[in-house]
Specification:
The protein is α/β, with parallel strands linked by helices.
């Protein structure tokens, strides 16, 4: 724990509030260790049970996590907004930041012309009674999903993929329920599950998606929901193949009561075809975001599923934010209908595929097996990710540590290819080869 912050309080509620205050002010940053239960109890003059209850409440709300022998620490993305929450450590001057996991801004379609057209045709502002899902957007979404083999009789719109997944989990599960999530997997999903008071059950992933054995084990452990990334899995770039989809469907056939959630966040950027699991259980949902292909600020996703599941999400949206902005829906529809935008996204898709292939090829030439069948990231297992991140940082490259994405899987690093130019590939691969090599043990000379 930081030496400048002292947890205070004489009740579990006060101790919990004190820790949360430290997180809110930034004095307890992500990863900060909290005192051991008995040590803090002795310092505060309270019983260990009081401190344990405070820590339990913080864990249930996703503020802290128990890290085995490493004790209790503040989560990477605690659900507490603070004065420093929007800040992140900048890359060192001159360093190439490959840690962000964002698309290349130069490959995103320009939205200015479409915004200008909307301004001319928007008319009067939509009122509360007129808000909702635009029928023309739903119809266009149905056409696009059906073309990919996803049943789309029931469709609604959410404020992005994470928003849709959050509403699915909250409207179908209760705190304490187990959720099977990919390992390694999307960091936001790990934090979201913890924030909702759900129990994450790791589900191993290989290049073809979640393994059937891993899914079977997660279901045996009591998972009531399963989250699967269809393509461009973050961080590994895995793709659910046709054969893997058949195998996963066979496992799910024995558990028709499980909620199945598919995340197709890459959508039009994925070079691999979609092999959806839609309909493998009674309650299922398929979520496709507009953010990766069209721009991260386009906070919109279409959500298809069985009638009951979609109705629950739509109902929860209605009593919360009401609806996704009709202006945002109209902008998305305009982008979908623009042939020039479609062509630009096709170029982006090819560009990302070339960068991923080039980096994986360069790593392979140096004896390293990087993963990334599609998407914008390459995942590389390493013996010591802390050392790898540090060595690369010293060499002028910032990568994401695997600890952000894993529960029980081995160490690794995630490299985002979006900022890479062709000339960057070979020097980066050389640096990664040095960083991934086992550390040379120190020796003493006589």
């Amino acid at each position: 724990m930081t030496a400048h912050y002292q947890v205070a309080g004489t009740t579990a509620a006060e101790i919990s509030a004190s820790v949360e205050a430290g997180v809110r002010t930034g004095e307890l940053p992500a990863g900060a260790a909290l005192p051991a239960v008995r040590a803090l109890a002795q310092r505060l003059g309270v019983s260990p049970a009081t401190v344990a209850k405070a820590y339990q409440g913080l864990r249930q709300r996703g503020v802290v996590e128990t890290a085995g022998r490493n004790g209790t620490r503040v989560r990477p993305k605690p659900p507490v907004t603070g004065r420093r929450a929007a800040l992140r450590l900048p890359a060192p001057p001159g360093a190439l930041d490959l840690s962000v996991g964002e698309p290349d801004p130069g490959l995103l379609p320009p939205i200015g012309p479409h915004l200008a057209a909307l301004a001319e045709t928007a008319g009067a502002s939509v009122n509360y009674r007129g808000g909702g899902v635009l029928p023309e957007l739903v119809e266009a979404a149905r056409e696009r999903l059906t073309a990919d083999g996803v049943p789309a009789e029931a469709v609604t719109v959410t404020g992005g993929a994470s928003d849709g997944i959050e509403r699915l989990l909250v409207s179908n599960l209760s705190p304490g329920d187990a959720v099977a999530i990919e390992d390694p997997g999307w960091a936001n999903t790990i934090d979201l599950v913890a924030t909702l008071g759900l129990r994450a059950v790791p589900m191993p992933v290989d290049d073809a998606g979640p393994t059937p054995a891993g899914l079977r084990a997660a279901l045996a452990a009591g998972a009531r929901a399963v989250l699967v990334t269809s393509r461009a899995q973050n961080p590994t770039g895995a793709v659910v193949t046709a054969d893997r989809a058949v195998a996963l469907r066979a496992v799910l056939a024995d558990r028709p009561d499980v909620l199945l959630v598919e995340d197709d966040h890459a959508a039009e950027l994925a070079v691999e075809p979609l092999h959806s699991l839609a309909g493998a259980t009674r309650n299922w949902a398929f979520v496709r975001s507009a953010s990766k292909p069209y721009g991260p600020d386009l906070r919109l996703a279409v959500l298809a599923g069985d009638e009951v599941t979609v109705a629950r999400v739509a109902g929860r949206l209605r009593v919360c934010s009401g609806w996704v902005s009709t202006l945002l829906q109209r902008l998305t529809l305009a982008l979908w209908r623009d042939p020039a935008v479609t062509e630009r996204i096709a170029l982006a898709r090819a560009s990302y595929a070339e960068r991923v292939a080039a980096l994986r090829g360069a790593l392979a030439e140096r004896g390293l097996a990087g993963h990334g069948r599609t998407g914008i990231n390459v995942w590389l297992p390493v013996p010591d990710e802390t050392r790898a991140v540090a060595v690369l940082r010293d060499a002028g490259y910032v990568v994401a540590p695997g600890a952000l994405f894993r529960l029980a899987s081995g160490p690794g690093i995630r490299i985002t290819v979006s900022p890479l130019a062709e000339a960057d590939i070979a020097p980066l691969a050389d640096a990664v080869a040095r960083a991934a090599a086992p550390a040379t043990p120190a020796t003493l000379s006589a």
